[in-house]
Write a structure and sequence with these properties.
The complex is a heterodimer.
Chain A (H helix, E strand, L loop, with lengths): L1 H25 L9 H22 L22 H5 L3 H28 L5 H25 L18 H36 L1
Helix pairs in contact in A: 2-5, 2-6, 4-5, 4-6
Chain B lengths: L1 H5 L1 H20 L7 E6 L4 E3 L10 E5 L8 E3 L5 E3 L8 E7 L4 E10 L5 E9 L2 E8 L8 E8 L4 E8 L4 E5 L8 E9 L2 E8 L2 H4 L6 E8 L2 E10 L12 E9 L6 E5 L4 E3 L8 E9 L14 E3 L23 H11 L5 H54 L3
Parallel strand pairs in B: 1-7
Antiparallel strand pairs in B: 2-5, 3-6, 4-5, 6-7, 8-9, 9-12, 10-11, 10-13, 11-12, 13-14, 15-16, 16-19, 17-18, 17-20, 20-21
The chains are: A mainly alpha, B alpha+beta.
């Protein structure tokens, strides 16, 4: 009887083994593992989406541009032509410095919004978390390609916003700027992706 | 020489020349004769006959006719046209009693410019085209001056104007700058008006429709269609500017579109209706910025899936719209009527066989497990019986 049991178990086992190739061939080919550059572009796109949502839900499009923030990264001098001729290391360093600057501005906005109980707070917190994650990932990529870290510019932030209206205006200005920065940064990552592969 | 001058022939010549040159002398005075006078419609327009206040009677003509629009004539010969309308426009001439032309002026009537309705579009990241429509029809020739102000006037760029088409172009705009304002100043003889419009470039980006759309059959596949296209010629061909394409297709005559999105050409659709001509349209949008605009649709391109030459059947009259309650229904009906075993069907049969085999394997496995459990249970029962009998035996044994 023991012999019968053993033989049946081994028969079952061999049967399963025989069908192993069938099971393995049925499973789909695993997708290509995303590189850090893929992650950078994906996270940037996600941030852009969050910014668009915040602009839609909580900011307002006023005709008067207050221009409270003089220390935001300069975007008016970036042209489509520049995008086609980006160099890897300086661009990564610049993007990192810009992102850090935006991070400071949004942390300030977060603090001010808390005082005025701005309804966008939860999403703003999520956005800052995403920004930090993106800048960490970007810094890791910079270390990998030996791109230098630029000296951080000191942001000049408005000292006091007395009214909720000012907070709304400020958040609109910051979000509008940042949305365009994300658009530019995403395209930059697309361009830099093959250049990173060439370096590594 | 004095004798010559006093001769009757010479006097006649001088008189003739002076008579014939009189009107010419009047015409060459630009302010008086060949000038154009602009005035607003619905107003009273005053046309002076001459600068001096000589109170001699004058006659006014409008387009060489003595019939004048509603007017009054002052004692010094000034013509006042009352509540002028477009029919009042034309050439006005005033003559003295002797028929001598004293003054001639062309009157043009219209309105001063009003605000403009400006719309802008970016066919790519390096060009802006703004066009405008007047809110007030001025009836007068105008000039335009258009300037793009970047970040509250920190920088400016000239928008190159095409007066006839009423549009202007800016090359290499600062696409990623957050604040852009366009000012267009319209100026005519009666005044000027400047209109300002804020330009969110990222929302005004609208590519032109894709080009060269081709819909082709794939041999051996009666339900597949290959759709290919080329990028809009105005789009920047660079990896930094990817496009997203929206493809829609339907059998000719159907009301309902099926749609698919793709980032590159070509696309193969798998659910075409066998034997029917399909309509295909494509539009494009910047892939990165989902707040930008979709291009217009391409013109309808027709294509038909592959069909076996022997079974060619083209209905003369394309089916009525009511024939298609929905695309799903169409697909079901096609499957029912199609008896031929196409390569796709062969693939399906293979899948069915694989599934049957798999079920057999699962069934075998389950049965084997049941069998093993049953055998074990039997063995355990057998052992328990043996133990019981041995215990009974031991009990019955004398100590």
């Amino acid at each position: 009887m023991k012999l019968l049991l053993d033989s049946s178990s081994s028969l079952l086992f061999s049967l399963l083994l025989a069908h192993l190739p069938v099971f393995t061939s049925a499973t789909p080919v695993p997708p290509r593992r995303p590189t850090d550059m893929d992650k950078l572009s994906n996270q940037t796109k996600n941030l852009m989406k969050l910014t668009q949502e915040l602009l839609r839900e909580h900011a307002f499009d006023s005709d008067v541009e207050p221009h409270r923030f003089r220390s935001l990264p300069e975007m008016s001098n970036r042209s489509a032509n520049d995008l086609t001729n980006l160099e890897l290391k300086p661009t990564l360093s610049q993007l990192h410095a810009d992102l850090k600057l935006y991070e400071h501005h949004f942390e300030w906005l977060n603090r001010v919004s808390k005082k005025h109980h701005h309804p966008a707070l939860p999403k703003l917190v999520e956005m800052i978390r995403e920004m930090k994650s993106l800048s960490n990932l970007l810094h890791r990529q910079m270390l990998r390609v030996e791109a230098p870290r630029l000296t951080q510019a000191t942001p000049s932030l408005p000292p006091h916003l007395p009214y909720q209206f000012d907070v709304l205006q400020s958040s609109h200005e910051l979000l509008q700027h940042f949305k365009l920065f994300c658009d530019w940064a995403y395209r930059a990552f697309l361009i830099l992706k093959p250049k990173v592969s060439a370096v590594q | 020489m004095p004798g010559l001058l006093s001769s009757p022939v010479c006097l006649t010549v001088i008189w003739f020349l002076s008579w014939s040159l009189r009107p010419i002398r009047a015409q060459i005075q630009p302010d008086e004769v060949s000038g154009v006078r602009y005035a607003p419609l619905q107003s009273n327009v005053t046309l002076a006959c001459r600068k001096s206040q000589i109170r001699t009677p004058v006659v006014w003509h409008h387009n060489n006719s003595a019939v004048l629009p509603w007017h009054k004539l002052t004692s010094d010969g000034t013509l006042v046209l009352l509540h002028v309308d477009l029919s009042t426009q034309g050439n006005y001439s005033c003559y003295d009693n002797g028929g001598l032309l004293l003054h001639s002026v062309k009157l043009r009537l219209g309105h001063r410019p009003g605000s403009l309705s400006i719309s802008c579009r970016l066919p790519n990241h390096m060009r802006v085209r703004c066009s405008w429509v007047e809110s007030v029809k001025t009836f007068l020739p105008a000039q335009y001056n258009a300037i793009l102000w970047i970040e509250s006037g920190r920088e400016s760029k000239t928008c190159v104007v095409d007066v006839a088409q009423k549009h202007c172009d800016i090359d290499h705009p600062s696409y990623w700058s957050s604040s852009q304002t366009l000012s267009v100043q319209e100026t005519n003889a009666l005044g000027s008006e400047t209109t300002y419009v804020r330009l969110p470039f990222d929302k005004l980006l609208k590519p032109n429709p894709p080009r060269s759309v081709l819909v082709t059959a794939i041999e051996g596949y009666p339900k597949k269609l290959n759709i290919s296209w080329e990028l809009p010629s105005s789009w920047l061909l660079h990896e930094a500017f990817p496009l997203l394409f929206h493809i829609r297709y339907r059998p000719q005559g159907s009301l309902y579109w099926s749609e698919v999105f793709s980032e590159q050409s070509p696309v193969v659709i798998f659910d075409a209706l066998a034997g029917y001509v399909h309509q295909v349209q494509i539009c494009a949008r910047d892939e990165v910025n989902n707040e930008s605009m979709w291009s217009d649709w391409t013109a309808v391109t027709l294509g038909m899936p592959w069909e076996e030459p022997a079974e060619v059947f083209l209905p003369e009259d394309p089916f009525h719209e009511d024939f298609f309650p929905s695309l799903t229904t169409m697909e079901t009906s096609t499957t029912k009527t199609d008896d031929s075993l196409s390569p796709e069907d062969e693939g399906n049969v293979g899948l069915v066989i694989l599934l049957v085999l798999f079920s057999v394997v699962i069934l075998t496995t389950v049965l084997s497990l049941i069998f093993v459990v049953w055998v074990r249970q039997r063995r355990r029962n057998h052992v328990t019986k043996q133990e019981l009998s041995s215990m009974l035996k031991m009990k019955s044994m004398p100590i």
